[in-house]
Amino acid sequence: MAGNVFGEIFKVVTWGESHGPAIGAVIDGCPPLLQLSEEIIQKDLDKRKPGGGQPGATPRKEPDKIQILSGVFEGLTTGTPISLVIWNQDAKSKSYEHLKDIFRPGHGDYTYFKKYGIRDYRGGGRSSGRETAARVAAGAVAQQILNAYNINILAFTRALAGVTATKIDIETINRTPFLCPDSEACILMEESLRAIREKGDSAGGIVEVRVKNCPPGLGEPVFDKLDAELARALMSIGAVKSVEIGRGVEAAKLTGSQNNDEITPYGFITNNSGGILGGISNGDEIVCRVAVKPIPSISIKQKTINTKNEPADIIVYGRHDSSAIPRIVPVCQAMVRLTIADHLLRQITLKGFNKIEL
Amino acid sequence: MAGNVFGEIFKVVTWGESHGPAIGAVIDGCPPLLQLSEEIIQKDLDKRKPGGGQPGATPRKEPDKIQILSGVFEGLTTGTPISLVIWNQDAKSKSYEHLKDIFRPGHGDYTYFKKYGIRDYRGGGRSSGRETAARVAAGAVAQQILNAYNINILAFTRALAGVTATKIDIETINRTPFLCPDSEACILMEESLRAIREKGDSAGGIVEVRVKNCPPGLGEPVFDKLDAELARALMSIGAVKSVEIGRGVEAAKLTGSQNNDEITPYGFITNNSGGILGGISNGDEIVCRVAVKPIPSISIKQKTINTKNEPADIIVYGRHDSSAIPRIVPVCQAMVRLTIADHLLRQITLKGFNKIEL
Amino acid sequence: MAGNVFGEIFKVVTWGESHGPAIGAVIDGCPPLLQLSEEIIQKDLDKRKPGGGQPGATPRKEPDKIQILSGVFEGLTTGTPISLVIWNQDAKSKSYEHLKDIFRPGHGDYTYFKKYGIRDYRGGGRSSGRETAARVAAGAVAQQILNAYNINILAFTRALAGVTATKIDIETINRTPFLCPDSEACILMEESLRAIREKGDSAGGIVEVRVKNCPPGLGEPVFDKLDAELARALMSIGAVKSVEIGRGVEAAKLTGSQNNDEITPYGFITNNSGGILGGISNGDEIVCRVAVKPIPSISIKQKTINTKNEPADIIVYGRHDSSAIPRIVPVCQAMVRLTIADHLLRQITLKGFNKIEL
Amino acid sequence: MAGNVFGEIFKVVTWGESHGPAIGAVIDGCPPLLQLSEEIIQKDLDKRKPGGGQPGATPRKEPDKIQILSGVFEGLTTGTPISLVIWNQDAKSKSYEHLKDIFRPGHGDYTYFKKYGIRDYRGGGRSSGRETAARVAAGAVAQQILNAYNINILAFTRALAGVTATKIDIETINRTPFLCPDSEACILMEESLRAIREKGDSAGGIVEVRVKNCPPGLGEPVFDKLDAELARALMSIGAVKSVEIGRGVEAAKLTGSQNNDEITPYGFITNNSGGILGGISNGDEIVCRVAVKPIPSISIKQKTINTKNEPADIIVYGRHDSSAIPRIVPVCQAMVRLTIADHLLRQITLKGFNKIEL
Predict the structure, then answer these.
(1) Which of A176, A322, B93, C131 has the fewest CB atoms within 10 Å, counting from its CB?
(2) Neighbouring residues of D252: CB distance < 8 A, sequence distance ≥ 6
């Protein structure tokens, strides 16, 4: 109801504010007997961490150290809730005092205030991107489920700061600072982002997520179609403004004979559908793309209002990335992991009936 | 879990197959004391009905007569479940016999078979667009809730068959056969669609939905953000392949200073956000756009397989529209109505605490 | 949220008022490929029907004919929602006009009015026992799931009108008008009930439900324990005022050494726990008992108030049973069927992981 | 689905094992702007703590210090999830090594093993009564909601070790070690429990919970009736074997004229219904009673089996209470608080429509 719960069988609750003592997640519904450790989760969490060699990175250095508080016994999940916590260590609250009574354009400041009548203004509070660290941690647990069925989720930067990757070389992704599969495009992205940053501005881009080896049958018509659930999952990430499945927006311009994926005994000839038909996975690669808006925190003066509805000017200083990319890439991956893991378990329910000895 | 339930407080379950005895919906959670009658729902249902003067329309003539079986007493809702039924009268099952063992490309035939191990092949069964009539009926009930807060949902055709409407004249929408707000574009759409249909092919397009007078505060971070819920709602419509909020895909190319909506005491200067910030409505107009894929049923020969995984050719004859547009327009409107009504009630829960005498 | 939905995986929504056009249920989450027909459901529904040779029965004669509107194709479930409808044929609305402005003691009249500000006063509207026919119909579908695991639910009258059955002979149950397993007690029940009825009064009793052959492992700690879910399921039946599991209330008086069920390699020596330990079935017979209050509609004058809060006297004439027993017996059985079927599917989800080929 | 979530609007997830690093709860759906502090919660938590002057108390000394990790800002709730944690400090895991492969009668050992295929055997792991500390903490937050409507939940010991309290003097409750409202009965309880404990045995009892000043209208027919939800809430406490509402089991023996509560303009004359009619609160005091089974850990030799299904004898040494009473009393109170708070918010949703300015 209040919106912090995700999933039906593999259910995740996240909690925590940017500058509170900690953030975390509780997972209810993880199957027992899965291998799980803090190391496994930490590895994924490190991919989201700020800084590294990435240009345009926030200088805030958080170790983002994961701690498992329950649900794991002697290295195995027990079927009971898994409580994950990440302590906030580098939270400089004082640097946010000046934002106490003013609404930053493009942020949730104004709407949180209107909705709740109160807001933790320090670093965005609950609306901070920091909350997504808990999603990444939960996503790492979900991946342990997917591993049992050899399902893998690939996420990468398709476009950044006006530059689009056209060559998709999977091996390249982790070699580039922007998690981009096209090394030449990556150089141009770097240049473009630097120019934008030097003006005190920020940039948007496109992230693509692909599900490899997804079995057919996942997704629950009519409302919990797999594409609908992926759309919700990805759109629930703060900066995302669109979700496309397969050909996405382009499909609007095609004719049926262009867009239909013909079928052979050895599979679909094309994959315009993005691996989903009638809201159910068809066994082909699932392809999603999301548009990521430019980070709203910019060092350029903007018009705004304060909590008394008086006009004001604002320049958002502080430690900010110039783009949500690439840090948002593992977040997109995590949300798709959570979605696919949940639907995998839902389909197991369906298929298991009459085949499982209890 | 099984996917046929939508909403948290205003909860809708739809049921029914294209060629079964009936389709319908049950609404659990409609507030009491709302005016409701079959006439009110029928009016909306008629907008979705096939035929009329629209070019490219299916000749199937269904009266789609709504019947209220419960939850309304002496013209008012009682707070108990509202059961709605629409009888299937023009279902020619025999004309689908030839599709019994073959999978139509672009349809859910293959995936339903893989998921459930059985499918009602008559007219697509549950995956038929016919199911959306139940959504439109439920959406008409949701609108009665929205009326209490003067919220109105506008939906129209933004693009069809390669032609885009550039002039948005609201008065024009209901005058054109395609529910298009640009009369000149509509003429070109008609021509383009006719040419496509004459080749036995079909066309896609874009539908835009706008929420007028939505109060700020709707949407539940972090997972049930209003944009996330709208994305799920709209993507759950069979033919939809993308959902955009505000500037949508374009936002990826903008900088922060271009994309941020500056704020004044009299409102936001621009509306690139599409009326949603941090997952919560900001009081501005909510703007969504969806890409509608071309209808997969075409009279052009395509490669496919049968249930024995043997190759086959298929030409889909029968009564089919050449585009899901315009019939999908009131369906998009209905899904947004359901989403906004549900979130309105969720926000009333929040705001009502301590203010309501029980 | 609004309370008319039951179950997580096997989800049932019931709808309908006593004197509306129909009542019904929609089941979302029934596995595909189960045999199902109107005959199967009708057989169970007939056990709840009024009249028959039972003493104290209401003279209202409803055929209670079930109709399946969706989700079944060629005799098998398809995995899509199953819509069930029972038309109200013998609803004499006029006989309830005099109850329009007055609250019957012991009924939900007063509270429905206070909650919703409106009520369908005809025959109790939604609060009528008639609603339970939809539960029995849904329970018959649930039993088809339980059949696959040879699970059987036995329900019978343990006490009525002050007389308690002490001999439990299963064969006797269906031979007696009160569904009582003790033929001698049944004669005394009949006498006692007749005496009560002749005074214009009504009687309560106790119903016992036993789950035969339930596999261990069902129930989801900590809140969805199997006993907790059974308690909710049974207490949701209008007339039920207590739920006991195993020794129930008596357990309060025992010591640990008396109450603990010792374990041997061949099973538990005793069954004081009623087949549930730590909220999870232990493989032994599950035993529940519920107290059924006397029917509040009596022909004896009672004090009450009207909708204007003025004092009034009331004598409830009309077609009424003198006890909810035995008609409530199949309703208790149905609620346990729904609960066990849902938890069976939940456990299949858990056990199916890693064992099911998708 | 996996059972660790409670509530619809005021949603609580508990997590943690008896001998893991910590236990805790996350609350999603607490309204904003409520006063909340660790002190407020601690006060309630202290009532559940072991030891004190109570006879029969476990010597385990846990400070059970609550920590709020999110959702509260400057002393007020913010509408975001409230994360509560209690660190386990006095967990002697080694003392449980001998229980690794053996199932204690009356405990969840056997069923957890059968359900999950793995169990944290240390102190009962997840099935330990320790989990209920998280419920009490969450219940303290729920009480802050109830305070706004002056609703108060009273819980006390009605019976213990075969002795029943007949005099209900509310002032006495907190003066007695057993939270018993009858000082004379309390002395007899003490004697009876001592005798039982000296034999190495344990005792059960009865807890009563009363809701003071509950407004009419709470409860959601037909499945989420208030009594049904209370039954589930209370039965979800490990040791509870029955739930009664109002006259409860006794109602089975009454006639309608005895059991009906007549109504006057000034309220109900009697309260046999226990404050609930048709599943909805009627404004009268809500009365529930639960039977608490004797603690299964006893120092008397019992027959059992090990994980290899071999026979074994067991004597459960260690730090154990001789009765779940009185420590279970605040747990029962907490579960009723959670239930009433959730239904209060649900009713606010209903009543708030059309009255709330958004």
Answers:
(1) B93
(2) C159, C204, C205, C206, C241, C242, C291, C292, C293
Interface touch D118/A73, C-beta < 8 Å: yes
D206 and D292 Cβ atoms separated by less than 8 Å: yes
What is this structure's pTM?
Answer: 0.97
Angle at D300 between CA D297 and CA D303, to 5 degrees: 85
Q: Are the beta carbons of B78 and C119 separated by less than 8 Å? A: yes
Cα-Cα-Cα-Cα dihedral sign, residues D145, D148, D151, D152: positive
CA–CA separation, D69 and D22 (whole Å): 13
Q: Cβ atoms within 10 A of the Cβ of B307, count? A: 14
Integer Cα distance of D141 and D134 in angstroms? 11
Interface test with D, best of A68, A70, A135 (most D CBs within 10 A): A70
- Coil, helix or strand at residue C172: helix
Distance (Å, whole) CA A265 – CA B120: 22
3-state secondary structure of A206: strand
Look up residue B169 and give its two tokens. Answer: 């004249």
Q: Which contacts of B41-45 are long-range, i.e. CB under 8 A and separated by 24 or more positions?
A: B41/B66, B41/B68, B41/B84, B41/B137, B41/B140, B41/B141, B42/B66, B43/B140, B44/B136, B44/B137, B44/B139, B44/B140, B44/B143, B44/B330, B44/B334, B45/B86, B45/B133, B45/B136, B45/B137, B45/B140
**Residues paired with C102 in a beta bridge:** C306
For residue A179 the two structure tokens come to 């998690």
Helix (H) or strand (E) segment spanning residue C349: helix C328-352
In chain B, the number of structural domains is 1
Residue of D nearest to C241 (CA): D248
Task: Report how far Cα A265 is from the mean position of its chain's Cα atoms.
Answer: 35
Residue B207 phi, psi (nearest 5): -115, 140
Written as one string, the DSSP assignment of D9-67 is SSEEEEEE-TTSSEEEEEEE-PPTT-B--HHHHHHHHHHH-S-TT-TT---------EE
| Tokens describing residue B188 | 């070109």
Rounded CA gap, B47 and C230, in Å? 46
- Using a CB-CB cut-off of 8 Å, the residues of chain A touching D126 are 78, 80
The full 3-state SS of C226-293, as one line of letters, equals HHHHHHHHHHCCCCEEEEEECCHHHHHHCEHHHHCCCEECCEECCCCCCCEECCEECCCCEEEEEEEC
Provide the 8-state DSSP code for A103.
P
User: Which tokens hold the place of C276?
Assistant: 């549930």
CB C327 within 8 A of CB C48: yes
Task: Copy the structure tokens of residue A175.
Answer: 């070699």
Give, for all 358 residues of chain A, the pLDDT tens digit.
Answer: 899 999 999 999 999 999 999 999 999 999 999 999 999 999 999 988 765 445 555 555 657 999 999 999 999 999 999 999 999 986 566 778 888 999 999 999 999 999 999 999 998 999 999 999 999 999 999 999 999 999 999 999 999 999 999 999 999 999 999 999 999 999 999 999 999 999 999 999 999 999 999 999 999 999 999 999 999 999 999 999 999 999 999 999 999 999 999 999 999 999 999 999 999 999 999 999 999 999 999 999 999 999 999 999 999 876 678 999 999 999 999 999 999 999 999 999 999 987 888 7
Between A149-158, B88-97, C96-105, C324-333, the lowest mean confidence (pLDDT) is in B88-97
Q: Within the 63-122 window of chain C, which residues sit less than 8 Å (CB to CB) from chain B?
A: 67, 69-71, 73, 76, 78-83, 85, 115-120
> Is the Cα torsion angle C37, C39, C42, C43 positive or negative in sign?
negative
Amino acid identity of residue A7, one-letter, is G
Most C CBs within 10 A among B9, B15, B111, B342, hence the mutation to make, goes to B15
Q: For strand D286-292 and strand D240-245, is the pairing parallel, antiparallel, or unpaired?
A: antiparallel
The domain containing residue D53 runs over which residues? 5-355
For C182-222, what is the HEC assignment? CHHHHHHHHHHHHHHHHCCCCECEEEEEEEECCCCCCCECC
